[in-house]
Amino acid sequence: MQLERQLAGDGFEVLKAQFDREALELVERARPDLVLVSEVDLCARLREGEPGRSWNRDVPVIVLGPEQADVFDRVRAFARGADDYVVSPLVYDELVARIRAVLRRVAPGAPERYEVGDLVVDRVCRAVTVSGRNVHVASKEFELLAKLASDPRRVFTKEELLREVWRYRSDLRTRTLDSHASRLRRKLERLGGGSFVVNVWGVGYKLID
Asked: From CA 142, how far away is CA 24, in angstroms rounded?
């Protein structure tokens, strides 16, 4: 229950099943982005599929192994189709990092370049230009800008940005995001490229109105 609460607090939608059959039915019905299992045999059943069932056999799976697990247990899990293996007792921050790493590996590739009006964000070169003129931005400023540019009119919540750009826990109170957003806004608007990095009071930020 504690792990479930922690994951939910970090923005994950958690669906819980107690038995293998219930878990398979849930995977088929809910189509989750990732599955955590404690039984290697369940991982194998997910990969092999069953007649008349239609769950995603490629769904990422992380096996939560027992404290006494050894290298042979890990090898067996990977042979049965596991994407990762985490040994108990769980270190929560490590588990979340592994979950995010697996999800990044299976996520569709992000565009190499975002163009929003006169603003261009080149993810390959890590370069930013406004009206063809280069804008020098720090590493976290670039990551924040790229995130906002991925969906420029969407309002990203502060919790979401802190979680995905800084890897902070969602309940952390900090001015880091606000100070980075303010500096980034000044750098972009200094070149006369219009209004960027819009603060939506009480919610978060979006790139443009």
From this structure: 41
pLDDT tens-digit readout, 168-207: 755 556 788 999 999 999 999 887 657 899 999 988 999 9
86 plus 175 within the same structural domain: no
Q: Are 203 and 44 in contact (CB under 8 A)?
A: no
Q: Are residues 167 and 81 in the same domain?
A: no
SS (H, E, C) 148-162: HHCCCCCCEEHHHHH
The parent domain of residue 48 ranges over 2-106
Same domain, 41 and 130: no
Specify whether the backbone of 13 is left (phi greater than 0), alpha (psi in -120 to 50) or beta: beta
Decide which of 106, 123, 158 is a domain's last residue.
106
Closest alpha carbon to 46 in 29, 23, 66, 30? 23
